[in-house]
């Protein structure tokens, strides 16, 4: 976890989304210095946050962990991207006194996320227990490189990202994509939630990961 305190501005809680790690947020922290009180944390299976034994990577498990972080840092605007956007929605329902706003970069609908999983893993290799984990252990650098190619419009935008991810991998950093995909496949569909707080979904129009 990294905390850049400020006595002014909004209170923000960011979650990283593998292969992104805390170090990817250094430039953002510099931009927000003195303008916002920012906390960034790595959820289990990302970067230096090695999952504990028994963590099952389901949506309820991620919601519990994110809730623990939120209760520790106090009421915040959550900036939870991709799959963790669903955890943010659950927390907005379950912990309404602690979630002031919710921003979900690159969080699709639950149905679209399942469609995406079928598209990137049509043979169900990554979503096969043990096989998927072994594949990611061997190919996490190449998977990360293809990830950044898909979600950035121009090479100059992705250039700072891959070296930081590879540096994290070199020091034992996690990128448990297989476990995340398998865990969410076992998770119940959260359905349509009427959220009691201001909510925004942020998406780059040239992001090719989803239609």
Descriptive keywords:
8 strands; alpha/beta; 211 residues; six-stranded mixed sheet
How does the SSE layout of this entry go?
Layout: E1 2-4, E2 11-15, H1 26-32, E3 37-41, E4 46-47, H2 59-73, E5 76-79, H3 84-94, E6 99-105, H4 110-120, H5 131-151, H6 155-158, H7 161-170, E7 174-175, H8 177-185, E8 199-202
Parallel strand pairs: 2-3, 2-5, 5-6, 6-8
Antiparallel strand pairs: 1-3, 4-7
What's the quick description here?
Helix content is 42%, strand content 15%.
Helix tally?
Answer: 8
Which overall shape is indicated by the principal axes computed on the Cα atoms? Answer: globular
- The ordered H/E elements are EEHEEHEHEHHHHEHE
Oligomer: single chain
First and last CA, distance: 33 Å
In the sheet with the most strands, the strands line up as: 1-3-2-5-6-8
Largest sheet: 6 strands, mixed
Structural category is alpha/beta
Tell me how many strands there are: 8
Helix percentage range: 40-55%
> Any low-confidence stretches, pLDDT <50, length ≥5?
none
Overall mean confidence score, pLDDT: 92
Q: Which percent range describes the beta-strand content? A: 15-25%
Query: Rg from C-alpha positions?
Result: 17 Å
Could you explain the architecture of this structure?
By secondary structure, this protein is an alpha/beta fold. The strands form two sheets. Strands 1-3-2-5-6-8 form a six-stranded mixed beta sheet, covered by helices on one side. Helix 2 packs across helix 3 and helix 5 runs antiparallel to helix 7. The longest helix has 21 residues. The chain is globular and about 50 Å long. 32% of the residues are buried. The mean pLDDT is 92.
């Amino acid at each position: 976890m990294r905390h850049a305190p400020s006595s002014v501005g909004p209170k923000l809680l960011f979650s990283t989304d593998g292969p992104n790690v805390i170090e990817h947020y250094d430039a953002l922290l510099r931009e927000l210095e003195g303008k916002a009180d920012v906390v960034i944390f790595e959820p289990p299976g990302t970067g230096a946050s090695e999952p504990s034994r028994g963590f099952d990577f389901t949506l309820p498990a991620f919601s519990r962990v994110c809730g623990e972080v939120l209760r520790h840092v106090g009421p915040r605007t959550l900036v939870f991207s991709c799959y963790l956007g669903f955890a943010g929605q659950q927390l907005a329902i379950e912990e309404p006194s602690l979630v002031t706003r919710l921003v979900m970069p690159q969080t699709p609908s639950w149905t679209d996320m399942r469609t995406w999983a079928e598209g990137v893993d049509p043979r169900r290799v990554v979503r096969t227990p043990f096989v998927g984990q072994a594949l990611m252990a061997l190919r996490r650098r190449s998977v990360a490189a293809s990830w950044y190619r898909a979600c950035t419009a121009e090479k100059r935008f992705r250039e700072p990202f891959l070296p930081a991810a590879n540096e994290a991998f070199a020091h034992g950093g996690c990128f448990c994509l297989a476990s995340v995909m398998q865990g969410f496949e076992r998770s119940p569909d959260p359905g349509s939630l009427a959220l009691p707080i201001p909510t925004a979904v942020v998406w780059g129009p040239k992001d090719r990961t989803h239609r």
